[in-house]
Q: What sequence folds into this?
C-alpha cells in the first residue's frame, strides 16, 4: 500500500513538474514576443528621433558634410543590426540577409550630389 502510494506520488510530482515546465516555456515565449516588440518599438522611436533631428538640422543655416551625417550614421548602424530604417517598414526586423532598397536610400540616398 505504501509502495503504491509512493509511486502515485512520484507520478503526481512528475505531472506537476511537467506542467511547471510547460508554464515556463509559455512564459518564455510570451517574454520573447514582448522583447521583440520592445526592440522594434525602440528602433521605431530611434528612427523617428533621427528624422526629427534631420528636420531640425535642415532648418539650420549651414550643413557641411563630407561623409554620412551623424543621424544617417545612426540609421546605418540600426540597419546593420537588422532593422528597417526606411519610412515604409521602419522599426521592423529585416529577415536574415535581407536587404532593403528603401533603407539604403534612407541611409545613402540624395544627401549630397556625389554619386557612390
Ligand atoms: Zn527598409
A:
Amino acid at each position: 500500500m505504501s509502495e503504491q502510494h509512493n509511486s502515485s506520488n512520484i507520478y503526481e510530482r512528475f505531472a506537476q513538474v511537467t506542467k511547471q515546465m510547460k508554464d515556463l516555456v509559455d512564459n518564455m515565449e510570451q517574454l520573447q514576443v514582448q522583447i521583440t516588440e520592445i526592440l522594434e518599438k525602440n528602433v521605431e522611436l530611434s528612427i523617428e528621433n533621427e528624422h526629427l533631428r534631420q528636420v531640425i538640422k535642415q532648418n539650420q543655416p549651414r550643413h557641411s558634410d563630407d561623409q554620412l551625417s551623424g543621424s544617417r550614421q545612426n540609421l546605418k548602424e540600426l540597419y546593420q543590426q537588422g532593422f528597417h530604417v526606411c519610412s515604409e517598414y521602419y522599426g521592423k526586423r529585416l529577415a536574415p540577409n535581407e536587404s532593403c532598397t528603401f533603407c539604403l536610400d534612407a541611409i545613402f540616398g540624395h544627401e549630397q550630389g556625389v554619386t557612390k
About this structure: Residues 84, 86, 88-89, 100, 102-103 surround zinc ion (CB under 6 Å). The two ends are 84 Å apart (CA to CA). DSSP finds three helices and no strands in the chain. Residues 82 and 94 are 5 Å apart (CA to CA).
